[in-house]
Amino acid sequence: MTDDAHMITISELFDAKARIEELEARMDGREIIAYIAREAARFGAAAEVGGMEMAGAIVSHLAKNPENIEPFLNGGILELPADLWMHGNLTWHGGGGTVVNAETVRRAKQVKRLGELGSQLNASKGTDDDG
Fold first, then answer.
1. How far is the CA of 57 from the CAs of 3, 13, 43, in angstroms?
2. Is the Cα torsion angle 64, 67, 68, 74 positive or negative in sign?
3. Structure pTM?
4. Which is nearest to 103 in space by CA: 83, 89, 115?
5. What is the largest CA-CA distance in the chain?
6. Tens digits of residue pLDDT in 1-22
7. For the segment 74-100, what is each residue's pLDDT rounded down to a tens digit?
8. Which is the most buried residue in 20, 37, 58, 98, by most CB within 10 A?
9. Separation CA 93–CA 101 (nearest Å)
10. How far apart, in Å, do the first and last CA atoms of the chain sit?
11. How far apart are CA 36 and CA 60, in angstroms?
12. Across-strand partners of 99?
């Protein structure tokens, strides 16, 4: 049995295909790359990070989350999550020259959150005792 709330209708599929075709007609590959470079340079300068690193983060995020391509092309980098590098599929250089994998960082954050929740639960059990 499927959950109807998560099913895509044929009409929604055709609408999405039409929007993608419209974007493709509006921008060719060179224009898309130039747009990514402009957005990366603009946002990188404002955030005081390198434009090349920012462009890599954008490409990494969009490769893993293609549903965000259209919003990005229509509205710019502010349509993407603030921590977009955490949601990508490419590695990056971390401190000390180590190569960092986004999936490893995501897992480490989840483990840390679970540990914090466990600590909170243990602390609340200790304070809620009736004696």
1. 34, 28, 12
2. positive
3. 0.63
4. 89
5. 72
6. 444 555 667 877 777 777 777 7
7. 899 999 998 887 888 888 888 888 888
8. 58
9. 9
10. 49
11. 12
12. 93
